[in-house]
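pasting for ref
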Amino acid sequence: REESLEKGDGTDSSTHQELEEQFRIVDLNKDGFIDAEELKKVMKNLGMKHSDEEISLMLEHADINGSGKIEEDDFMKVMSDYLDSEKEETLDVRDLFDFFDSDKDGFISQQELQFAIIEVLQDSISAEEIETMMKLACKKARKSKDAMISFRDFQLLLEDVGFTA
């Protein structure tokens, strides 16, 4: 019988196993801990340069029990919290997308955009203005000019304008 779908750290079984594997990869000397040097090497390998002070701050943030190292339990907790925050952000963006996608076909049309803008702003907007916005949105998101915005296009567009959920 398969393990419980959710582990004590809030992750499902497959995510939990993936995080365990990631921990083993980052634990370069295989002592069961991630120390400042290992964290710095991994960050450098990922193309991220951080000062010793920044590495210390990261370590301090992840070192939940105050041991001076990141233990596997610390790593699992920090990573599951991060993954949860990512899911919440995606859900917030999904809720916003669903508000615009009134016919629930998975795309935002010019008419849906116009209706949503009028609904939110209590202002009328011309069909030409909506068409221009749609073309710009589609061009910005996918470099295409079709008059429909997918969820992924919507995410990219919000990222581009600096929207944070």
